[in-house]
From TrEMBL:
It comes from Wenyingzhuangia heitensis. This is Mevalonate kinase. Keywords: ATP-binding, Kinase, Nucleotide-binding, Transferase. Gene3D superfamilies: 3.30.230.10. One of its GO terms (molecular function) is mevalonate kinase activity. Its EC number is 2.7.1.36.
């Protein structure tokens, strides 16, 4: 038994902002993926994954919803027969490890599912997003459903607002100097505590004003710049976004990266932003000149995502 591959995702723009109706842009990241496999003898990671799937099966069994129904009998039987999710997607790194599992479960066990081959109208995309949000809330407490949607469709997803989601084309990669990259913090991040900190901050009127006046405005501009292929304007707006995040989202940035974050803004060698909810995992970087950024970030592990 080997199921289809489900890929990692990178939320280029929109972390936290999409909670308050900013734009968002997520792209598949094909360097990491996961698929269902089966083993007669379970051990190590396979055994642990099988146990996780059993716990998740119990969650799905307890769900009271009209949005989606699953073939739970088949799921239970497959888990009993040694099914596990074989994944290279790092957990707690902000690249959609739980999203891939959710997408795989939906694809294999949902009844009357919306398939990737049909005409994906706005209503169908919103329905899928709602289903995936419900399914993924098991892992994070709350979920927008965006990670599983991206993994399921394996297409770039543009969030215009909470009620307006569409698949989009992104500009072809160039062989220029500029790049988007991932910086490995070497720390595991947990989504739920970070979202709780954000929700607590949202009780402050000044924070809410900053979010709408600065954070959402810069995020929306970055999305527009990226989709138009306007790299020059993009780097200017990412720099502004990076500064706003450093000033207002410090708990989401591991403390040992605060100085490195500021160094990028001051030197213009690179600009860092959160990748997902933060707290660890990957940090997303944008560099006008990737070779200069690599030199400036010597000693850190970088992964190239996209070239301008």
């Amino acid at each position: 038994m080997k199921g289809p591959l489900f890929y990692a995702k990178i939320l280029l723009f929109g972390e936290y902002g999409i909670i308050k109706d900013s734009k968002g842009l997520a792209i598949p990241y094909n360097s990491y993926n996961g698929a269902f496999k089966k083993a007669d003898v379970l051990e190590g990671k396979a055994l642990k994954s099988n146990g996780y799937l059993l716990a998740y099966y119990n969650y799905l069994k307890s769900l009271k919803t009209d949005l989606v129904q699953f073939d739970l009998a088949q799921l239970e039987q497959d888990i009993t027969n040694g099914m596990y999710f074989d994944s290279s997607i790092p957990q707690g790194y902000g690249v959609g490890s739980s999203g891939a599992i959710v997408a795989a479960i939906y694809e294999k066990y949902a009844e009357d599912k919306i398939t990737v081959l049909e005409n994906l109208t706005k209503d169908k995309l919103l329905r899928l997003k709602a289903i995936f949000g419900l399914m993924e809330s098991y892992f994070h407490g709350t979920s927008s459903g965006l990670d599983p949607l991206n993994s399921y469709l394996s297409l770039p997803i543009l969030i215009q607002s909470k009620d307006n989601v569409e698949s989009v084309g992104i500009p072809y990669q160039q062989n220029g100097k500029g790049a988007v990259f991932l910086l490995d913090s070497k720390m595991i991040g947990e989504t739920e505590p970070m979202v709780n900190i954000f929700m607590e901050k949202m009780k402050n009127e000044g924070f809410r004003k900053m979010l709408s006046d600065e954070f959402v405005a810069h995020t929306d501009a970055c999305v527009d710049n990226f989709l138009r292929g306007d790299a020059k304007s993009l780097f200017g707006n990412v720099k502004k976004l990076s500064k706003v995040v450093l000033d207002n989202f410090k708990p989401m940035i591991p403390s040992k990266f605060h100085a490195l974050w500021k160094k990028g803004i001051d030197s213009n060698d690179y600009y860092l932003k959160l990748c997902g909810s933060g707290g660890g995992g990957y940090i997303l970087g944008f560099a006008p000149d990737f070779e200069k950024a690599k030199a400036s970030l010597t000693g850190h592990d970088l992964e190239l995502v996209y070239r301008f």
